[in-house]
Amino acid sequence: MERTPFIAGNWKMFKTVAEARHLVSELVPGLQAVQGVQKVLCPPFTTLLAVKALLEGTDIGLGAQNLHWEASGAFTGEISPTMVVELCQYVIIGHSERRQYFGETDETVNRKLHAALQHGLVPIVCVGESLAENETGQTGEVVSRQVHEGLKGIVLEESSTPSTPDGHGVSLVVAYEPVWAIGTGRAATSEGANKVVAGMIRPALAELFGEKIAQTIRVLYGGSVKASNATEFFNQPDIDGALVGGASLKAEEFIPIVKAAAIV
């Protein structure tokens, strides 16, 4: 099944408002020239309003890096889905850094995912194993559990697949991000990543939603993706794009990654 390639740039905790404006001004011309790829920028909360203004009239989407599951309340320092949806169409949920440093669990990922979908956001849900889990052969067990527990109770109807908030099929994106490859410069092999997606993630999605819907869900790879290795991943049949970290902070790296997705 043909799935529209999807490339998201996760800026993490980088870029002031002024720096964000400068980067977007460098990115927009090159990204706009690439057709046939869904492009999303996910800057820090403090820069969302400025970036949104610069993306008006383009085909580049805007995403947040996190949200709380409550619509409002006494949760100092948190950002609700009602706040995110005013500015964004997408939101990253369950990134390994959130799990590692801020105590996120499959349960909190699930609550955030429900909240995002209820408010019309397209979630980019991250799953992936640690180095220890990988080396002890637990990848399948860990990734399958994260998919099943993180997406528990979600209903995706077949009739909803043609028209969704982002216009590209099922309004849910999954990102396979092996923890040991994030920010380390040590990417998984393209064949290894595709094996996890095709043999572990899609079967888990099929168990939840049925085979037909599972084949419409874009599954991305994330973890030290750069211009020099992007094509290897995009040539794999079950990898539909990338969630890009450090390379998304440089126009000369991110634009070629998006171009690589368009060529495949």
The overall number of domains is 1
Question: From N to C, what is the helix and strand string?
Answer: EHEHEHEHHEHHEHHEHEH
Q: Which shape, going by the Cα principal axes? A: globular
Approximate strand percentage: 5-15%
The biggest beta sheet reads: 8 strands, parallel
SS-based class: alpha/beta
CATH superfamily membership: Aldolase class I
Indicate the CATH architecture: Alpha-Beta Barrel
The gyration radius over C-alpha positions equals 17 Å
Strand order of the largest sheet: 7-6-5-4-3-2-1-8
**Helical residue percent band:** 40-55%
Overall strand count: 8
Find the CATH topology. Answer: TIM Barrel
Termini, distance in Å? 14 Å
**Mean model confidence by pLDDT:** 92
- Helix tally equals 11
Write down the CATH class: Alpha Beta
Unreliable spans are 159-165
Describe this structure in words.
The structure is a single chain. The protein is of the alpha/beta class and 264 residues long. The chain has a single domain, classed as Alpha-Beta Barrel (TIM Barrel). Helix content is 41%, strand content 14%. Strand 2, helix 2 and strand 3 (60-64) form a beta-alpha-beta unit. The protein is globular, with a radius of gyration of 17 Å.
